[in-house]
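Our preliminary data section would be incomplete without showing what the modeling component actually yields. Below, a chain of 118 amino acids is followed by its predicted structure, encoded as tokens that our downstream tools consume directly.
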Amino acid sequence: MDEAAIKKLSAAPIELIGRVSTPGGQSSITLKASELEVFCDDPEAFFAMRHGVAKEVYQQWVETEGTPRCGAKTTQGVRCRNVVSGGIQMNLERWLQEDGGFCTVHGGATSAEARNGR
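Predicted structure:
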């Protein structure tokens, strides 16, 4: 987009809205005229950048429907696939805080010892 178009859009009394996939559907994101090209090139990367995470983290959040997964290792040495207590379709910030916590099998939400060992 050329400079003149960006300046004209920036000065106009309009609101620019983009949409991105989020747990449970889609979310709207307000854009500045100067951000349009970057957003259009890769909406996922733009949303991730806006929230201070890598695109891969954003994609994992969407793929898990915002449901945090247990961070414990199984006896086979792979990450436990159980859900951390506390809900689903969490916003990105809350999901980042909870993902990698412990499920009830591995000491979960009621175990202060397990929560402190994160």
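The CA atoms of residues 24 and 94 lie 15 Å apart. The mean pLDDT is 88. Preliminary results of this kind motivate Aim 1 of the renewal.
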